[in-house]
Amino acid sequence: MEKENLKAPQSGISPFSKEHDMFRETVRSFLAKEITPHVDEWEEKEIFPRWVWERMGEMGFFGLRYPEEFGGSNLDYWYTVVLVEELAKIGCGGLGMGLTVHMNMATPALARHGSYELKKKFLEPAIKGKAVSAIAVTEPGAGSDVAAIQTRAQRQGDHYVINGRKMFITNGTQADFVTTLVKTDVAKGHHGFTLIIVPTNTPGFSVGRKLKKLGNRSSDTAELIYDNVTVPVTNRIGEEGKGFKYQMEQFQDERLSACISTSSGAYATYERTKEYAKTRIVFGRPISGFQVNQFKFAEMLTQITAMKAFVYHCCHRFVNGEDITKDVSLCKIFSGQASQFVVDTCLQLHGGYGYMDEYKVSRAYRDNRLFRIGAGSDEVMKEIVAKMEGLSGKEGPRESHQRRVDESIVKPTSPLP
Ligand SMILES: Cc1cc2nc3c(=O)[nH]c(=O)nc-3n(C[C@H](O)[C@H](O)[C@H](O)COP(=O)(O)OP(=O)(O)OC[C@H]3O[C@@H](n4cnc5c(N)ncnc54)[C@H](O)[C@@H]3O)c2cc1C
């Protein structure tokens, strides 16, 4: 009888071509040889070294989706998906977080809306791994409520003078520039925000403190202080007053990247746990031999498969240039619950060993917890969805609510796979 070919076909529902698969192999072998052997040391030190940025840049990983004229490769988004997935599999969430903040959270608005000169000055070195970037939105008094930020930029001739504080900033202690959300006109509401690139060697900029964390330890997180930081007006991304809109767009990149990473990380933890369960003997049997545990694996795989399908659905829409605000918010809610179920179940299956730092599942458990808070918490995602469903009571007169609800019933905008 002819042997069955169980390998997934290249066409059909798989979004990846042979070229993507070859790229995946390149990323895997790079990570296995040059990165994975060091991650335990970086977790201890609570930072990873500068050469990682340089090597990632040399490998072309930071510029996959960015134009060639700034050193990028102008490749389709699925290459970015491959890179983020592979980074998430190595069992060190902090490293992936630092690098994906640089690639997918601090630079997309610059690439989309920055002037040619600004991109030459900041995007190009970021792509080459010669400059590290950070995104600064959150403040000590404003996280979920982005519109409540207090950092101000006052225009003085050809310069902005920035004053304020930013909190929980990833790559904060080592960034060369920080994409900073500020208020330029308090009276203009959402039209009074601007995104400005702040080089960290500008006088008045300082790192208040490096923060100690539950997880993602190899990524540095800091509080930043802006004390009369003066930067040229040319450091502004796009137009003054459009910062809120640009940042809301950039949040979709950020959330999608976080969902890709979390679903892939959960799958890697599942696979490691499966191997562990086959070899750990209790009461004369491997723990995988008990039906109760087999069912746990089936339940986890159900969640992982659904998570992956949802993530790829969002990626497809993103690639097509569609607005993914609602879908990626839903995906983040679902992936938060699903991944937490997976890492918790995996830890339980490891028993006491799962509680020890030397087992990757312990780190995965700690690292994964951030996902439901960072890049917009579960509650904020639910608020977005409720608002887009016309449920928040903030959309204006009753009739317009009704109209929105009716429209969404007649013409669904987010078909699920
Ligand atoms: C490790 C780490 C790295 C981070 N990196 C960055 C970074 O690089 N750049 C950056 O700008 N920020 C970063 N953040 C900040 C992150 O985005 C915020 O922590 C997050 O948005 C939540 O804001 P908050 O911590 O101020 O919580 P708060 O806004 O104070 O919220 C507290 C609680 O109230 C809930 N809540 C909020 N609104 C509502 C509501 N309407 N209804 C019900 N409940 C609600 C929240 O969900 C949360 O559970 C990072 C955070 C961490 C922990």
**DSSP strand tally:** 9
Q: In the CATH hierarchy, what is the architecture of the largest domain at level 2?
A: Up-down Bundle
Q: Approximately how much beta-strand content do the residues carry? A: 5-15%
Q: What is the CATH superfamily label of the largest domain?
A: Butyryl-CoA Dehydrogenase, subunit A, domain 3
Written as H for each helix and E for each strand, in order along the chain, the element string is HHHHHHHEEEEEEEHEEHHHHH
How helical, in percent, are the residues? 40-55%
Tally of contiguous helical segments: 13
User: What is the CATH third-level topology name of the largest domain?
Assistant: Butyryl-CoA Dehydrogenase, subunit A, domain 3
The biggest sheet, with number of strands, parallel, antiparallel or mixed sense and barrel status, is:
4 strands, antiparallel
How many distinct folded domains? 3
- Which stretches of 5+ consecutive residues score pLDDT under 50? 1-11, 396-417
* CATH class type of the largest domain: Mainly Alpha
C-alpha-based Rg, rounded? 22 Å
The overall pLDDT, averaged over residues, is 92
